[in-house]
Amino acid sequence: MSKAGVLTERERKLLIALVKMVDQYLDEYGDEVDSRAMSAGEHAIEALATFGLMENINTRFGRWTEAGNQFREEFNRIK
User: Fold this and answer.
1) What is the enclosing helix (H) or strand (E) of 34?
2) Spatial distance between the Cα atoms of 73 and 40, rounded to a whole number of angstroms
């Protein structure tokens, strides 16, 4: 998460939107997320990795971390 381990309300809102975008528009194969070689997808994976929610596998693929899966589970219910 953020450096102190606690997200600000602003960070939380942005991460919720980013997680929802990744879940809706990017493909998952097993535990890997495919950016589909779109720069927006690549930047999304990189941004989520900065907060510890994903890890970069390479320039195209990422993988949800345990923290990322917990975040998705908690906030994907938000409409």
Assistant:
1) strand 32-34
2) 23
Backbone angles phi, psi at 29, to 5 degrees: -125, 100
CB atoms within 10 A of CB 60: 16
pLDDT score of 5 more than 90 = no
| Residue reference for tokens 């070689």 | 37
Q: At what angle do helices 66-75 and 9-25 cross, to 10 degrees?
A: 90
Instruction: Give CA–CA dist 42/63, Å, rounded.
Output: 12
Contact 33, 43 (CB under 8 A): no
Q: Tell me which residue of 62, 64, 57, 47 sits closest to 2, measured CA to CA.
A: 47
Q: What is the pLDDT of residues 57-69, one digit of tens each?
A: 999 999 999 999 9
